[in-house]
Amino acid sequence: MTQFIAKVFLAGGFLLGIYGLTQDSTVLFRSGLGMIAAGMVAAGYNIYRMLVARWQQPEE
């Protein structure tokens, strides 16, 4: 789920930021940057959860 959220926020933030740059709207540009940051946090959390799950697996 976090991987999907990360992808959506990164793509949406990029598109919103580009639209904000072309329309000279600082509000849209800053919103896009915020979405990109949120997507990066979600991606980082996803990586953290994957690593924790691997460390907690019993050794066979």
How would you sum up this structure in a few lines?
The chain is 85% helix and 0% strand. With 60 residues, the protein is mainly alpha-helical. It starts with a helix and ends in a 5-residue tail after the last helix.
Quick tags:
60 residues, mainly alpha, 2 helices, 85% helix, rod-shaped
Describe the 3D structure.
- By secondary structure, this protein is an all-alpha fold.
- It has one domain (2-55).
- Helix content is 85%, strand content 0%.
- The chain has helices at 2-22, 26-55.
- α1 packs antiparallel against α2.
- It is rod-shaped, with a radius of gyration of 16 Å.
Secondary structure: elements and pairs:
Elements: H1 2-22, H2 26-55
Helix pairs in contact: 1-2
What class, by secondary structure content? mainly alpha
Q: How many individual helices?
A: 2
Tell me the major beta sheet.
Answer: none
Overall shape: it is rod-shaped
The helical percent reads over 70%
Radius of gyration: 16 Å
Overall domain count: 1
Report the portion of residues in β strands: under 5%
